Amino acid sequence: MFEQINQKKALLDANRPLPKYTVKSLREKLLLEWTYNTNAIEGNTLTINETKVVLEGITVGGKTLREHLEVLNHRDAITYVEEIVHKGEALSEWQIKNIHRLVLKGIDDGYAGVYRDQQVFISGAKHIPPAPFLIKEEMEQLMAWYEQLETKKLHPIARGAMLHAIFVGIHPFIDGNGRTSRLLLNLELMKDGFPPIVIKVENRLAYYEALDRAHTQKEYDDFIKLVTIEVEDSLNLYLSTINKNT
Fold first, then answer.
1. CB within 8 A of 110, min separation 6: which ones?
2. Domain range list for the chain
3. Concatenated DSSP letters for 184-242?
């Protein structure tokens, strides 16, 4: 499944470092598209152009404070994820809570970075997240799975996709689980030198269905395939700049 991806990644690595301003413009493009799509999946009504101006510090009339905060918070969470990658820090529950704290900052400070104390349900899904008293244990099991040698041997795409799927199945927070899970997925990819990916809002139905299969049947292949397509899209974007710079 990953042979073509590996070849493209090797080609990208062979042409690194990319020119400084190329990297800057790629980051800005992906940060915008990642922020717009991840928030749109969760119901944020800002368009991609409105998201762009909010990122530039401009308020959009007729939109809620929450929608503005979701954009700015996500930008800050991406910056934090980039810092983790740059420092080479190992993933921990503390980091996951910090990512979530940034996602929910100013939106629901009482639950930002705090595991939920209430039962929740995922709209449209067959899977029911675990009861609140089980969350701590399930998150510890997730971290134990992540630390296993067998998990470390997985391809970064499979490992990142499964981390995302298992985490969002636990649904450890009252709100912001989807955004946090996609940040964790990209954190895992970026640690291995892959560009961040964008789960596109137009693919939301396939995304939700693949996740529900992962949760109810422990069948991760469809979700891994969906993530693989997005990884190839991001690699193709980066590789297109190499052709223009040579």
1. none
2. 13-245
3. HHHHHHHHTTPPP----GGGHHHHHHHHHHHHHH---HHHHHHHHHHHHHHHHHHHHHH
Looking up tokens 């992540």 gives 146
Position 223 scores a pLDDT of 98
Has 178 been labeled as part of a binding site? Answer: yes
Q: Is 180 annotated as a binding residue?
A: yes
Average pLDDT over residues 86-99: 97
176 is in an annotated binding site: yes
Please tell me the class of the 13-245 domain.
mainly alpha
Tell whether the model's pLDDT for residue 236 goes beyond 90.
yes
Counting beta carbons within 10 angstroms of the beta carbon of residue 69, is it exposed (0 to 12), middle (13 to 18) or buried (19 or more)? middle
Residue 243 pLDDT exceeds 90? no
Give the relative orientation of helices 20-41 and 177-191 as an angle to the nearest 10 degrees: 150
* Rg over CA atoms, the chain: 18
* Active-site entry in 100, 164, 171, 215: 171
Does pLDDT of 245 surpass 60? no
Q: Does the annotation place 16 within a ligand binding site? A: no
Catalytic residue status for 86:
no
